[in-house]
Amino acid sequence: MILLWLLVIPLAGGLLAWPAGKLNPTLPRVISLAALVLDLILILPLLHNVTPANLIAPGHWLVGFDAPWIPSFGISLRLDLDGLSWLLIVLTLAIGVFSVVVSWKEIQDDVGFFHANLLWSLAGSIGVFLALDLFLFFFFWEVMLVPMYFIIAIWGHENRRRAALKFFLFTQGSGLLMLLSILALAFLHDQQTGKLTFDYFALLTSQPGGTFGYLVMLGFFIAFLVKLPSFPVHTWLPETHTEAPTAGSVILASILLKTAGYGLLRFAVPLFVAASRDIAPIAMWLGVVSIFYGAILAYGQSDLKKLVAYSSISHMGFVLVGIYSFNYIAWQGVVILMIAHGISTGALFITVGSIQKRLHTRDLGRMGGLWTDVPRLSSFGAFFVLASMGLPGLGNFVGEFLILRGTYEVAPLIAIFAAIGLIPAALYSLIAIQRAFHGNAAEPRTLPDFGARETIVMIALGAAIIWLGVYPQPVLKIAAPGLGNLVPIDTTAGLTLTRSGT
Predict the structure, then answer these.
(1) E strand or H helix at 63
(2) Would you call the peptide bond into 392 cis, given omega within 30 degrees of 0 as the criterion?
(3) DSSP 8-state assignment for residue 100
(4) Residue range 228-241, pLDDT digits in tens
(5) Which of 196, 248, 258, 422 is a plausible cystine mate for 190, CB 3.0–4.6 Å?
(6) What single DSSP character describes residue 58?
(7) CA distance 29 to 32
């Protein structure tokens, strides 16, 4: 039942926050914080339950919940938590708390409805990380997108409605492909066994092959590729980030993009092992193209928020390369990088939002000299730019290093090209620091620096990224059983990971 409560609490919190905003604008903020903190209190102790649960399928699971939902169609409320999903849910809740804090003064209109949508989007993300019934997974996949559409369209910037519509069309269109693939996989299993089900563990044994297998796999692959996002289906992201409010950008970059990486790891690869192995070279080269494409376009940006958005495309290219390397070390790096990117990029969007609030612009040409005017904001901003760049000793470096190390064992040329992609990343990062924080101001100004609330948020995020860079072993240890759960039950399916060097 505890997994069900992880979903019910933020959903109910949203229902309370919406009308509470009409009574007092502070109430929705307090309700949101209370709901997210309560979820954290519920999930943190689950990590101590290290004994594999006696679930339907073998594996290292912390806790599970299974109840009939629409039994006539084989649909159930199947929720399961392992180390991988535990890490991503904790990241979701922590980022959610920070999003509420940073929007405390930014959001002044329809405060209740804003926090309702924020909580519902986070609840959908938690459901994505828990659901192991594929129909339920798709349900939560849609639940997290609709509230984000409202967050962008109502509280975004000048071109918010265009950006929200573009976000919705891309994600909903690709989601429809995934739904068709889910239905096709369930009907195939029904033909094979005479039982219609959407249960993940049952569908793992289907492993469709031939042209049909490729087509069904592509529905999942394209849906997750759009959300990651990867070249060439990335075009919705920069505009969406640019127009979204600060909290929307933080949740989008830190959480919603990670649902795509998780989806590739949990569903696209294990459910279609043969097809995924065949398409792996294409997927990895797409990742390399994304690394260069995102970095080069970030280098050419004068809008600081667009620069950070394009850098996300580049970093998610490493995730795509690592997943389809089929290497255990690279998969460890994928987990670390998803968490580190969620922290560092979320912090960068908080920084950009704070700069925009003070200067009323995101144009790098109108910045300069911020270190003199707002030293705390500038020092945190420079730190997280360096973290995103992959500075040794910080979390992003560990993730990218492990991905490159693991990929080199199976595809040396791809690993070399991906590593070269770090060079333009260093260029745009250092240029951004120089143009935004150093030099002389474009005009005389007096700006307020980070206050206590913002400083505490940035210290917490900074401490997390340093911890990941200096001592990532606890995260790797937590994720290890979850990565083991990604191997299909049917060992004849052939998913084996390269583990040399571990």
Answers:
(1) strand 63-70
(2) no
(3) H
(4) 999 898 889 888 98
(5) 196
(6) -
(7) 5
Q: Give me the DSSP letters along 284-308.
A: HHHHHHHHHHHHHHHHT-SBHHHHH
The 10s digit of each residue's pLDDT in 67-76 is 999 999 999 9
Residue 443 backbone dihedrals phi, psi, to 5 degrees: -155, 155
What does residue 196 show for φ and ψ, rounded to 5 degrees? -85, 120
Q: pLDDT digits over 405-446, tens only?
A: 999 999 999 999 999 999 999 999 999 999 888 877 767 678
CA distance 24 to 29: 10
C-alpha to C-alpha distance for 296 and 422, rounded to whole angstroms: 11
Question: Average pLDDT for residues 74-82, to the nearest whole number?
Answer: 93
* DSSP-based three-state secondary structure for 1: coil
Phi/psi for 131 (5° steps) reads: -70, 125
User: Cβ of 105: how many Cβ atoms within 10 Å?
Assistant: 11
316, 228 in Cβ contact below 8 A?
yes
Q: Which long-range contacts (CB under 8 A, 24 or more apart) does 141-148 make?
A: 141/175, 141/178, 141/259, 142/172, 142/175, 144/120, 144/256, 144/259, 145/121, 145/171, 145/172, 145/175, 146/120, 147/116, 147/117, 147/118, 147/120, 147/121, 148/117, 148/121, 148/248, 148/251, 148/252, 148/256
Pair 429, 299: CB distance under 8 Å: no
Q: How far is Cα 113 from Cα 25, in angstroms, rounded to an integer?
A: 11
Residue 1, both tokens? 């039942």
Q: Which residue has the tokens 């009907």?
A: 187
Q: How many Cα neighbours within 13 Å face the side chain of 456?
A: 7
The CB density around residue 208, as the number of other CB atoms within 10 Å, is 22
Residue 496: exposure state from Cβ atoms within 10 A (0-12, 13-18, ≥19): exposed
Task: Identify residue 57 by its one-letter amino acid code.
Answer: A
**Is the peptide bond prior to 232 cis by the omega test (within 30 degrees of 0)?**
yes
Which three-class secondary structure state does DSSP give residue 400? helix
The count of residues in the chain is 502
